[in-house]
Amino acid sequence: MKTTNKIIILDFGSQYTQLIARRIRDLEVYCEVWPYNTALEKIKTTPMKGIILSGGPASVYAEDAFLIDKQLFELKVPVLGICYGMQLISHLHEGTVQRATKQEFGFSELIIDNQEDLFANIPVKSQVWMSHADHIEGMPTNFIQIAHSENSISAIKHSEKKIYGLQFHPEVTHTLIGQQLLSNFVFNICGCQPKWKITEFISAATTEIKNKVGTDNVVLALSGGVDSSVCAVLLHKAIGKQLTCIFVDTGLLRQNSGWNDLQKFQEKFKLNIIKINAQERFLTALKGFTNPEEKRKIIGNLFIEIFNEEAIKIQNVKWLGQGTIYPDVIESVSVKGPSATIKSHHNVGGLPKDLPFQLIEPLRELFKDEVRRTGEALGIDSKFVYKHPFPGPGLAVRIIGEITAEKVALLQAADQIFIDELYRANLYDQVAQAFVVLLPVQSVGVMGDVRTYGYTAVVRSVDTTDFMTANWSWLPFELLEKVSARIVSEVNGINRITYDITSKPPGTIEWE
Ligand code: XMP
């Protein structure tokens, strides 16, 4: 986004990099994540108020360490290095960084030596979150220590320039003083203003869309998920009838999602939606396939084929609207950089770049929570906007083994019961993602006086903010009992329920 009031975060591959950006956005300051090896020239010529160097898994003294040009510190822009970022600052200023004999992972007590600027309004002692194997052994030239823990130098500051380093992670919520500290950096040291507001984003985005699109038509693949729906409503606000949405019903969506929700949209926002009933085509294409990656590929390719068939029928389409959001952008720009190995999800419903349209992605600067707030501000129902994420391949990755119409119906019914009960217990919004998985395992049961032989369903619920790590939810036994009893008695064909108590890692959230 074109604003001088922004912070740039250089990414050295930490799992927490996106979290830093979200914390800064929470302060209503716009920020972007760039790969650590972004050309110095680009950094020099981009108006900004401050730079943050993220953490990272490497060691600054390793042969293939991720280094930066030392000129970065001469730009007269304040710099804050976090963990690896601090070690890098130190390394580039003749400090000594070594493997620590006492490595710190988890909580540590921080003792502040200098309660000024970065540590203004922060108590002398507080709890912080550390995660480091290396530490500063010898202080860098012209730096002073401004905080320590029992085992390490925890914060440093240049004696003249606005360059700071932190050994701990202010961005994680375990660091109780974290937000105050980031606020001190962003407002007091960098001089940013809290100007990043959703309402302003909407009005700027609307103008930009109008200017870009002119009188052309735009086509958009509407999945029924939050991102594509918010994108559609935003585009519609800007260009109205010039937008046509295509909803491909794969038959692999949840019972009460997809078309039900989109019909409400159509009524409320007067969206122009074309619905394609493709359940049969998907089931036929998937017949006989059990391998998860093959299933994903089949669904992805067929989706593109069907979307294309419809899109080319619409006149004067020059643009393809997409609900790409900022984490997707960061992941794709990081491919050449260090975060590459963290995650590679084939986003089914994602369309190839070689379609004969130009891309328009009005949400590409927003994090998920900002997309949700944008949706609410546009008048989309909160229940819809705050729904759990749903994978692109849909129930196909929640039916283990071969997919049949019968299994889809069983899973939809069981899943709906679990979700209903979560809402009823006021727990839906407390957990991050909840669903049912259908196993290709049949077992013996007894109902009344009758022997049954039915499928096994797995109830899964996880707590997470970033979906990269997750804990299984400690749902009340009473709820699990009710869900189990209801599924077995109401869904004819499922006679056994298990609850998945695997965290990620070592498990994944989905079963496939
Ligand atoms: P895992 O199973 O990798 O899931 O722990 C993490 C998050 O990603 C979602 N997920 C997908 N989303 N296409 C998607 O659009 C996929 O193929 C896919 N696989 C997993 C999953 O639901 C969870 O939110």
Automatic annotation (TrEMBL):
Pfam families: GATase, GMP_synt_C, NAD_synthase
Residues of the active site: C83 (nucleophile), H169, E171
Residues reported to bind ATP: S223, G224, G225, V226, D227, S228, S229
Pathway(s) of this molecule: Purine metabolism; GMP biosynthesis; GMP from XMP (L-Gln route): step 1/1
Enzyme class: ligase
Annotated catalysed reactions: XMP + L-glutamine + ATP + H2O = GMP + L-glutamate + AMP + diphosphate + 2 H(+)
GMPS ATP-PPase domain sequence ranges: 196-387
Single GO cellular component term: cytosol
Keywords on record: ATP-binding, Glutamine amidotransferase, GMP biosynthesis, Ligase, Nucleotide-binding, Purine biosynthesis
Protein name: GMP synthase [glutamine-hydrolyzing]
TM ranges: none
Organism: Spiroplasma phoeniceum P40
PROSITE patterns, per the entry: GATASE_TYPE_1, GMPS_ATP_PPASE
Subunit annotation: Homodimer.
EC number: 6.3.5.2
